[in-house]
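2024-03-11 09:14:02 INFO receiving multi-entity request
2024-03-11 09:14:02 INFO entity count = two
2024-03-11 09:14:03 INFO echoing inputs for audit
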Amino acid sequence: MTSYLEMCKSEVNTFLAALYPAQGPTKVLYDAMNYSLLTDGKRLRPTLCLATAETFGIARNQVLPVAVALELIHCYSLIHDDLPCMDDDDLRRGKPTNHRVFGEAVALLAGDALLTEAFFQLAKRTPGIPPDRQLKMVQIVAERAGAAGMVGGQTVDIEKTGQGGTLDDVAFIHLHKTARLIQASIELGALFPDISEAKRNALSVYGEALGLAFQMVDDVLDVVGSAEELGKTPGKDALVDKLTFPKFIGVEETLRRAQEIISNGQKALQSEGITSPYLFELQTTILERSR
Amino acid sequence: MTSYLEMCKSEVNTFLAALYPAQGPTKVLYDAMNYSLLTDGKRLRPTLCLATAETFGIARNQVLPVAVALELIHCYSLIHDDLPCMDDDDLRRGKPTNHRVFGEAVALLAGDALLTEAFFQLAKRTPGIPPDRQLKMVQIVAERAGAAGMVGGQTVDIEKTGQGGTLDDVAFIHLHKTARLIQASIELGALFPDISEAKRNALSVYGEALGLAFQMVDDVLDVVGSAEELGKTPGKDALVDKLTFPKFIGVEETLRRAQEIISNGQKALQSEGITSPYLFELQTTILERSR
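2024-03-11 09:21:47 INFO inference complete, emitting structure
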C-alpha cells in the first residue's frame, strides 16, 4: 500500500519535473536547478503543506504550486550551504553536490534562481484563495527564510562551527536554520482553508515543534547513521565540530527531548480540536527515522 | 537647487538606513547587509519606481517600501557578482567589496538575505493598493530577477566571459542582466495608479529601453571612465574579455544606438500621451553620464 507520504512525494516530484524545461541560452542554469531539484528527496516541506491543507478538506492539486515553492527554497539553501565557502560538502542526497558538477558560479546562480522562482510560484494567482491571503503566504515565507529565519540560522551555524558555543546556540541555530521553514510549510497549508486564527496559531506552534524535533533527530542520525541511509557523509558534524544537540547532551537525551517537544506541539493541536491522520503519519515517520 | 533625483535618493537612503538595525546573534549578517546597502549609490531603480508612480500623482511615501525592494535586489546581485567564484572584484562603489570585509560565507548569506527581504518588503500590505495588484508586483520582480531575467543574464555573462561570443550574446546579457530589473522598477511604479493596461505596457516598453541604454552607457564608461568616477576598477571589462557593446561596435556607435533605443522607448510613451518631467530628468542623467 502506498503511504500518504509517498503519494504526496510522487505528486510533488511530477510537478517539479515539469517546472523548468532546460533550453535556450540559459540551459546550463536550468540544468543545474533541475540537477538538485529532481534528485530524490523526502519532499518533507511540500508534503507538510499539502497534509495541513488536506486536513481541512483542501484538494492537493490546488495546494501544489504553493507547496513546491517550499521545496525550491529548501533546495536553494542546500546548494548554497554545500559551497566551498560554507560547509564545503561533496555529497548530497547520495550524489555529488551541485558545485562539484556545475562549478561554483553556476551553483551559486542556480541557488539564487531557485530562491527567486519560489516567490514567483507563491505569487501566481491561485484560484479560490483571496489575494490578501496569498500575499500573507509570501510574507511568511520571506520572514521564515530570511535574515530573521533560515539565513540568520545558517549565519550563526557558520560563525559557531569550530568555535565552541553553548546548548542555547544550538537551539537558536536549529530553530532558525531548520524549524522556521518547516513551520512555514504548515502555516502556508493552514492559509488555504477558512479556519480561525486560533487554529492557525495552533498549527504554527505545532510546526515549530515538528521542525525542531526533525533537526534533533537529524543530529542523531549524523552520529548513528550510515552514508547510504543519509545520502551524505555521516560523522561530519563531529569532524568539523558543528554545534548539535548530541554534542552537548548525548543521543538518548536528544531523542527524549525531541519527543517531549513534539508532545507539546500536539497539545497545541488538541486544544483547538485539530486531529489529522496525515500530519500524524508524517510526524511518526520523522521521529522513527532515528530507530 | 536639489534635483528630483537627489531628493528621491535622499528619501531612499533614509528609508534604507532604518530598515535593518544590527543586533542580536545575527548582528554580523545585518552588518554585512547594511555595509553594501548603505554605501552611496545612485538608487536608480527605486527612484525610477518613485518617479513613475509620481507621474500619475502617487505620493512617494506610499511607494517607498516597494521602491526600496528593488534596491535590495540590486544590492544582493552586486554582492554575489563580486564573489571570487563570479567576477572576483575587490572594489565596489569606491569601497572594498562585501566578501573582502566579511568573508565569502557571510557575503553570500547577506546576498541571500537581501533577496529574501526584498520579497518581504513587496508583500507587506500597502494601504490603498488592491492586494491582487501587490501580488502582481511580487510576480513581476520574481520574473524579472529570476532565471528568465537577471540571474539568467548573469549566467550567460559568466559563461561567455573570455569565451568569445557575438553581439547577439551582448544584447541578451544586457537585456536580462540589467534591463529587466530596471524595467521592473518602472512596471512596479505603474501598478500604483489606476491607469489603463495600454499605458502600463507603454511604460514597460520604455523601461526596457531605458535599462538597455543604461547598460550600454555603463559599457562605455568602463572604457573611458576613471576609478574615481566609477567607484570600481575601470578597464576591467576588456581585461577579462567581458562581452560589451564597445568591444564589438566601438564607443561612438554604442552611444548612438543607446540614444536610438531611448528614442524608441519615448515613442511608446508618446503614443499613450504620457509625459513625465521626473522620468525625463532621470533619462537625461543616465545618458549624460557618458559625456
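2024-03-11 09:21:48 INFO post-check: The CA atoms of residues 221 and 290 of chain A lie 6 Å apart.
2024-03-11 09:21:48 INFO post-check: The first strand of chain A starts at residue 91 and ends at 92.
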